[in-house]
Design brief:
Elements: H1 2-5, H2 9-21, E1 25-27, E2 40-42, H3 55-75, H4 81-86, H5 98-124
């Protein structure tokens, strides 16, 4: 990780320990290349927070999302046609009340939860062969916010 984010290993170790103590990450059972290398994973399948409580955190996360999407764009040509066709990038501006916006958020969260359950069921099933039937990690990002200044 130190190579990718240009930070000293000791600093990273401290922060990873803090995240672990807070219950946000757990040590992954994957073996490292040597005794010093440790692997970590998110402790929960989803993470959400009140954006008004930490705009700095929200900004950092959005930068990571942007980097992840740029990586996808840079490597999409290496994907099979069916995986490229399965992707989706869309946006729409709606005129809603705050109550309607909350209802929309709840519906989208429910939809994502149903697909997360399907994904979890698939994780428990035997692996499929490669091809269009193989299960791959798919990133889904939902955002909704007022555009008023």
């Amino acid at each position: 990780m130190a190579e990718y984010i240009d930070e000293a290993p000791g600093t990273l170790s401290y922060h990873l320990g803090t995240l672990s103590a807070a219950g946000l990450i757990t040590e992954h059972k994957q073996e490292g290349r040597d005794r010093r290398e440790r692997w970590w994973q998110a402790a929960n399948a989803t993470t959400s927070w009140d954006e008004t409580s930490s705009s700095a955190l929200s900004r950092q996360v959005m930068q990571l999302y942007a980097q992840q999407y740029e990586h996808y764009l840079d490597t999409a040509s290496t994907l099979s046609d069916d995986w490229r066709a399965a992707g989706n990038t869309s946006d729409r501006v709606l005129r809603l009340t705050s109550r309607e916006a909350a209802e929309l958020s709840a519906e989208l969260t429910g939809l994502l939860q149903r697909w997360a359950e399907r994904s979890a069921d698939a994780d428990a099933a035997p692996a499929a062969a490669n091809g269009s039937d193989s299960r791959e990690p798919v990133f889904v990002l939902i955002q909704s916010y007022s555009l008023q200044s």
